[in-house]
Amino acid sequence: MVTAQQVMDAQVHLWSLKNESHPKTSQYWAEVTNGLVVINPEIIAKSDLMVYLPDGEGCLSVNRNTEGLVTPRHYKIIVKCALFDSVTEKVRNVKLTLEGYPAIVFQHENDHLDGIMYVDKMYKVKDLDPKILPLYTLNEDDEEEDSEEEKSE
After folding, report:
1. Which of 38, 110, 142, 149 minimizes the number of CB atoms within 10 Å of its CB?
2. Of 67, 89, 99, 109, which one is the catalytic site residue?
3. Taking the model in full, what pTM does it have?
């Protein structure tokens, strides 16, 4: 991908999101199975509603513990971009409407294109504006089950 970025004038990110707990959020979401190649993305609209992942974001580019810190993101975004279809090997221009978890993932990956890391935008939950909400709530039973699974591995 580095060579392609040097040869053509484009911003590209590749991501795959397979999480059954988050429903399809756009007409294109059903197509996202093995990965999505996004070319020259432009976020053209953002919701006023801001959310965060209560257990925080993660990234292979970050090698430090960020536990207890969260990154506010827009709950809903509209994106204009081109998508590369690996089956037909064609590129098509689309407008995507993403909300919830897919919108958070998209914003995270898009920030990389601008040289921004999620750690540059982290806050302690207690320091957030109260209008910024968790995308979901963590309940203690889920956390205990996760801990038990980790212990048994």
Report:
1. 149
2. 109
3. 0.73
